[in-house]
Design a protein that fits this description.
Layout lengths: L1 H6 L17 E2 L9 E7 L18 H9 L1 E7 L5 H10 L27 H7 L3 E7 L28 E5 L10 E3 L2 E2 L9 E3 L30 E2 L2 E2 L3 E3 L11 H14 L6 E6 L21 H22 L6 E7 L35 H4 L3 E4 L8 E8 L3 H8 L2 E2 L13 H4 L10 E4 L5 E4 L3 E4 L23 E6 L2 E2 L10 H16 L8
Helix pairs in contact: 5-6
The structure holds 2-acetamido-2-deoxy-6-O-sulfo-beta-D-galactopyranose and calcium ion (CA).
Amino acid sequence: MNEVKLATLPVLMAVSIASAAQENQPLAGVFDTRPNVVMIYTDDLGYGDLECYGAKGVKTPNVNNLAKNGLRFTNAYTCASTSTPSRYSLLTGEYPWRKSGTDVAAGDAAMIISPEQYTVADVFKDAGYTTAAFGKWHLGLGAESGRQDWNAPIAPALADIGFDYSYIMAATADRVPCVFIENGKVANYDPSAPIHVSYKQNFEGEPTGRENPELLYNLKSSHGHDMSIVNGIGRIGYMKGGGSALWKDENIADSITSHAVEFIKNSGEKPFFIYFATNDVHVPRFPHERFREASEMGLRGDAIVQFDWCVGEIVRALKEQEVYENTLIILTSDNGAVLDDGYADLAEELVGDHSPTGGLRGGKYSAFEGGTRVPFIVHWPARIKKAGVRNGLVSQIDFLEVMAEVAGLSAASSLSADGNSSQVNVWLGNENETRPFAVGMASNHTLSLILDDWKYIEPKGGPAIVPWGTGIETGYSTEPQLYKKVAGEFDEAKNLASEEPAVLKAMQGMLENIRNNRNFWIEE
Ligand code: NG6
Ligand code: CA
């Protein structure tokens, strides 16, 4: 049983990484059937937050449809329990802990992915696709942190890492600057209100949430979020100006969706890749009026309904363009769920009997399952003929490599530091296949190693509860933790580290191998 399997584990294959991908050519023959690809990447949507994953008090009919007619995975992992590191890994295929500066980024962070790095957008461009990014970016812009001129074109930007078109928020909705950036320039730029941004000090005469709480007319902060006020909501960081370019939080979902729909309509003959990264359901949760009270859970539930509407609009546009059949839609989340993440939006008070993590321990920020296990749906009518639930392990680390396969790129060697192209079979639904392992990173960089039946959380000190008011258990401990799957779920209440020393040792060795070797893989 487990011992036998574990004994064969740490077999290592060190494969060199392609420094550039010029040698990659689209494969002849697959050209005409290559799908369009839409990656729908949600923010802070927990494992249990969609109706098709057991959500209560909220309806998600559009997502349910994708799950019903596609594949719904129950053991899919993101690479980290916060946004920036997860997104870094998703787009580059490199674990976030290999590269410094991939922690939750400020709104004035320099671009974290360097133009020399090969990204999933480059994969698609090399394969002859048109590429676009919409919504939350949170991976930095410009050459130097804190030195961007927001009143001029910013470089490097997304065009330098493979995106033909982009309409993004620099960081998060709770971080300044609160403007959309289209192809490296502030969208709807208002010359009468030049934009200044600082994460160090306020601009003279500008109100802040800390000093002027009476101006927080749309949402009050519960912790932090007490610097600049935009649209009656306190933010992280200081900004001045923006004028008519400032976003209204209630319109964010509409703005990114309408731009994505427009892009689909104008896509022309080439296949396209869309990275559609929603602001929902991150804080500040301030959905449009037409979604208010659409759920039984207040603003957080309403934001889920709004998200589902966005999915419906994308699907509708694909159908109108008659490309729905041959479009691969992947829907997943950057990290697990959180209720109170810094605004008094009653998420905790109104949650009722809904479990945002689907009963998993921990949540956003944590090493426990609630931090990195996420919804994961794959939908591609032309290709996936047998819909259903898949229980195999999946990791977002493979996105770049799997997409290279889907786009028909022939690669002489590995295209990423840590992804594995063979996982295309798992992603497209081969029932008998599973990833041999997944690695997750908590907010203090504690790593977890996940196998089919065992989960190991490495020892590292830290507070037992996220210290800034979310109430979430971190899973940090100075002791090693070893959890076993019981009836399909890791029992993260029962640490078996001292009872199962052989398993513990094997997993510790394997994690060290992964840490020390790019392209670590286990031979079948
Ligand atoms: C935290 C913020 C939280 C959220 C998070 C990043 C406070 C008190 N909390 O520091 O609100 O913005 O960073 O979330 O400021 S993420 O999903 O983008 O990683
Ligand atoms: Ca997030």
